[in-house]
Design a protein that fits this description.
395 residues, globular, alpha/beta, Rossmann fold, six-stranded parallel sheet, two-stranded antiparallel ribbon, Dehydroquinate synthase-like, alpha domain
Length: 395
C-alpha cells in the first residue's frame, strides 16, 4: 500500500533523562559569555539544581541575567523584557519552567534581534498589522519543569493579547535549538498541576494521532507517547508522586506530544482552548483535561454515523488508543472506542479536573466561544449545536 506524502519539521537537539539539566553548560554554543534565563518558579522549587547550574556557568565564566514569568506571557510582558534587554548582547536564552516560561522564552529569543521599539504584536497571527517574522533569533534552550505542553519541541509561542485573545508567533526556526528534558524537575509539581499537564499531553497525542494530517511517522511517535502516558499519568498523581522513573515516562510523552502536534496538528479540544483561555482564567491544561473525554465521545459518535474509509480509519485509531489505555484489545472497534470514552471520563474524575463552571463559564456566555472555536485537524467536523452540547456537559 502506498503511503500518503507528508512533511516533517525538525526537532531540537534533545538531552533526555534524569540529571540532564546539569548538562546545560555543555549544550550552550561554544564561546558563550552571557545568558538570559526566562524562569517560572524554578529557583524556589528546585533550588539545589539551580545552584548547581549557576556553579557550572561560573566555572566557564558565563554571566547571566534572569527574568521571571508567573503567568501566561502577554504582549506587554514580552515587549517590556525585550526592550530592556535588546541593547545587551546575549549568546543564548534559556527558558526553565512550565508552558508559560517556554512560550515566554521562545518569544523573547525571537524578539531580541528585532529593531528597537518593535512589538511582538506585529508578528502574532491574525493581527491587523501582522507581518511574518524573519526567523532570526538568539540561540534558545528549553528546559521544561512540567510535563504537558510539549513546547520544548514546537515552533510557536502563544501570547495573550489585549481583548482577551491568544495568538501565536510562529516560524520553523523557532523550534528550540536544544531541549533538555529532565523528569526529575517535575517531581515538585503539585498533583493538580501534574494531572492537568499530563492530560494536556495526552490530548495532544490523541488529537495528533487521529488528525487528518497524521503520517506514519507521527503515528509511531504518538502511540509511543500514549503508551508512556498510560503507564505513568495516574500513578504520579496518586500513589507514586515521588517515583522519578514514572515522571520520566510522562516527560517523554509530553516531549513527543510537542513533536506530533507540530507535524500533524490538533483537534477540537484545542480549537476550544484558544477562545476559552482568552476569555476566562482557565489554565490551558485544565481546559484540555476537562474537555478531552466529551470531545472524544462526540467525535466517535459522529464518525460511527459515517460510511467512508477515512471515518473507519479514524475509528480504528480511537480503538487502538482505547486498547492502550484500558489494556484490553478484543478487536471490536466499536467496543474499544466506547471503552476509550469511558476511561477518559473516569480519569477526568479520578484526577479531579475542574469543570468550566468553576471559572465563570455558563450557558449564557458560551456563544462567543462556540463562534471562535475551530475543529482544526479533527477527523470529523462537529457543528455548533454539538459544540454547545459539549460545553454544557462540562459546566
Amino acid at each position: 500500500m502506498a503511503m500518503n506524502a507528508f512533511q516533517f519539521a525538525g526537532t531540537p537537539a534533545i538531552y533526555f533523562g534524569v540529571g540532564t539539566a546539569l548538562k546545560l553548560v555543555d549544550a550552550l554554543p561554544q564561546g558563550t559569555r552571557r545568558v538570559l534565563f526566562v524562569m517560572g518558579g524554578f529557583q524556589r522549587t528546585n533550588a539545589e539544581y539551580w545552584e548547581m547550574i549557576t556553579a557550572s556557568l561560573a566555572g566557564k565564566n558565563i554571566a547571566f541575567d534572569t527574568v521571571h514569568i508567573h503567568h501566561e506571557p502577554t504582549v506587554e510582558w514580552v515587549d517590556d523584557v525585550t526592550d530592556r534587554y535588546r541593547p545587551q548582547p546575549f549568546d543564548a536564552v534559556v527558558a526553565i519552567g512550565g508552558g508559560s516560561a517556554m512560550d515566554a522564552g521562545k518569544a523573547v529569543a525571537a524578539m531580541l534581534l528585532t529593531e528597537p521599539g518593535d512589538t511582538i504584536l506585529n508578528y502574532l497571527e491574525g493581527q491587523p498589522a501582522y507581518r511574518p517574522h524573519n526567523g532570526n533569533k538568539v540561540f534558545f534552550v528549553a528546559i521544561p519543569t512540567t510535563s504537558g505542553t510539549g513546547s520544548e519541541t514546537t515552533k510557536n509561542a502563544v501570547i495573550s493579547i489585549p481583548g482577551g485573545f491568544k495568538r501565536s508567533i510562529r516560524h520553523d526556526r523557532f523550534i528550540p535549538d536544544v531541549a533538555i528534558v529532565d523528569g526529575q524537575l517535575t517531581l515538585s509539581c503539585p498533583p493538580s498541576v501534574k494531572a492537568a499537564s499530563g492530560l494536556d499531553a495526552l490530548t495532544q497525542l490523541i488529537e495528533s494521532y487521529v488528525s487528518t494530517k497524521a503520517s506514519p511517522l507521527t503515528d509511531a511517535l504518538a502511540l509511543s507517547g500514549i503508551e508512556a502516558a498510560a503507564r505513568s499519568l495516574l500513578p504520579i498523581c496518586t500513589h507514586a508522586a515521588d517515583n522519578a522513573a514514572l515522571h520520566e515516562q510522562i516527560a517523554y510523552a509530553s516531549m513527543l506530544s510537542g513533536i506530533t502536534l507540530a507535524n500533524a496538528g490538533l483537534g477540537l479540544v484545542h480549537g476550544f482552548a484558544g477562545p476559552l483561555g482568552g476569555s476566562f482564567p482557565i489554565p490551558h491544561g485544565v481546559i484540555c483535561g476537562t474537555l478531552l473525554a466529551e470531545v472524544t465521545k462526540r467525535n466517535i459518535e459522529q464518525l460511527a454515523k459515517e460510511t467512508s474509509d477515512t471515518a473507519a480509519e479514524a475509528l480504528a485509531k480511537y480503538a487502538k488508543v482505547g486498547a492502550i489505555l484500558t489494556g484490553r484489545d478484543d478487536r471490536d472497534v466499536r467496543a474499544s472506542c466506547e471503552r476509550l470514552a469511558a476511561v477518559l471520563e473516569e480519569w477526568t474524575e479520578l484526577l479531579e479536573i475542574p469543570v468550566l463552571g468553576w471559572f465563570g463559564v455558563d450557558a449564557n456566555n458560551i456563544d462567543a466561544v462556540i463562534a471562535a472555536a475551530d475543529n482544526k485537524q479533527s477527523p470529523v467536523q462537529l457543528g455548533s449545536a454539538i459544540m454547545r452540547e459539549i460545553l454544557l456537559a462540562r459546566l
